[in-house]
Amino acid sequence: MSKEDKIKVLYVDDEMNNLHGFKATYRMDYNVFIANNTDEAVKLLEENPDVRVILSDQRMPDKTGVQFFEDVRKQFPNPVRMLITGYTDVESVIDSINRGNIYRYIKKPWTDFDIRSAIDEGNKYYLTNTTLAIRNEELQKAYNELDKFAYSVTHDMRGPLLSILGAIDLAKENEDMGEIKEMLGMMDKSILKLDNFIRSIHDYYNMNRGEQQIVEIEFEKLVADLKDIYDISAQTGNVQFDVRINQSEPFRSDDMSLRIILNNLLSNAFKYQRRSEEHKKVSLDISVEKGVATINVVDNGIGIDDAHVSEIFNMFFRGTTEEVGSGFGLYNVKDALSKLKGEIVVSSKVNEGSTFTVKVPTK
Amino acid sequence: MKLDFIIIDDSKLDCFIAEKIIRNTGKGEDIRSFTMAKEALEHISKNPVAEGRKTIVIVDIQMPLMNGFEFVEAFEKLPEEVRKDYVIYMLSSSINENDLNRVQSYASIKQFLNKPLTSNMLSTLLEML
């Protein structure tokens, strides 16, 4: 067992002999920290917030163990607190246990079995509690997203459908072929919008429910697929599309997440062009250096108003009515990046364009 | 009596449908569509309605940047002499109860309408004016 895998245990006692004896006995099985006063103990906890079990002597000159636990609990609620004491202190111990400051106590003089079983039980309790806290947090996040999701479904899925329904209704009584064709063109857009939304949901669930699959990434290959798709957008939209890739070292990451990131950033770059711009441009730069992939997606499109830059990664935020955005794309990008421990920076100017810079470390 | 109309919806198709339906009734004089609520608000505050005329506003709820509720809130802050010649209807695909309840809380919203807008719906509504 490496030192990192061992349970971190902190022992607080004013008697140096006890501390050293304890450490000598248990350092093979646990990652033992010792402190001979409570200030030192707090300092160790600050440096090692992942200490799981704290054992403290009751009778110390600066503070009793009971007082120490009562104080330390506020700042470090997670470690399991255990008091080591003789029978004479039993009243204060009972009170402290009842108030939840102490998980259990070990009577002095302790036996090896007492200590081991106390630490192992404490560790189990710690794990159950922390896992529960993490699960609760995840659950809360999932609920919040579900709420937002249910709300937006009416608009983002019903909206385009009802538009089409309205158009059909109108077309039934219309004899003018020109107008009907105009409506068909707009119905087309409504359907694309709906499809776009459904695809984003698909991405979202793939990312959240799917396990990451870390593989060797060759950006040349990964981008080749995307380039085929976007070359068509470039042609039809009259956009100059430049791709530069500089990868001379291996890079490992989740292929799916990277695709979602690149796909959304490129799709936005092509989508949010300015119609009046004669030389529409989108460029994709990828370089891998010292284990970090830097991805730059640059366009000279409509740009993002400063007032909205901070909101663009929020779920269902849409910055414009001009295009068929779902308000889901950049949220998915951010989500994917948090899984890859990457980051994204945006710099943008209205009517000049946007630059998205993504940095992802290799796995 | 001829009426003026303002349609506010981020979907161009919905604007087109509404415009078309209004034209078919033969009662619409000046019909304008806005895909951005902010632009509609600007238009309203800068172009006073002519004496003795009324403008019907049909506004969607969920729109980027300024949604229908935000539009109504901003509208309610305009001076009374600007507001008095407008009748606002909210038109949405929303079936969310919070949205429907919220509509009731604005004095200046005459009624909530379900999408899609149809000629029957519009005729009934104009008769009740």
The average pLDDT value of chain B, as a whole number, equals 91
Major sheet of chain A: order of its strands?
A: 2-1-3-4-5
Strand content of chain A: 15-25%
Q: Helical element count of chain B?
A: 6
CATH superfamily of chain B: Response regulator
CATH superfamily of one domain in chain A: Histidine kinase-like ATPase, C-terminal domain
The poorly predicted ranges of chain A are none
CATH architecture of one domain in chain A: 2-Layer Sandwich
Query: What is the CATH class of one domain in chain A?
Result: Alpha Beta
The termini of chain A sit apart by: 23 Å
**Largest interface, per-chain counts?**
A-B, 32 and 26 residues
Q: How would you name the oligomeric state of the polypeptide chains in this document?
A: heterodimer
Shape of chain B: globular
Domain count of chain B: 1
The N- to C-terminal Cα distance of chain B equals 11 Å
- Give a quick account of the main beta sheet of chain B: strands, pairing sense, barrel closure: 5 strands, parallel
The CATH level-2 architecture of chain B is identified as: 3-Layer(aba) Sandwich
Largest sheet of chain A: 5 strands, parallel
Structure description:
The complex is a heterodimer of chains A (363) and B (129). Chain A is of the alpha/beta class and 363 residues long. Among the domains of chain A are: 8-110, Rossmann fold, CATH 3.40.50; 214-363, Histidine kinase-like ATPase, C-terminal domain (Heat Shock Protein 90, 2-Layer Sandwich), CATH 3.30.565. Chain A contains ten helices and twelve strands. In chain A, strands 2-1-3-4-5 form a five-stranded parallel sheet, with helices on both faces. Chain B is α/β, with parallel strands linked by helices and 129 residues long. Chain B has one domain: Response regulator (Rossmann fold). Chain B is globular and about 35 Å long. The mean pLDDT of chain B is 91. At the A-B interface, helix 5 and helix 6 of A face helix 1 of B.
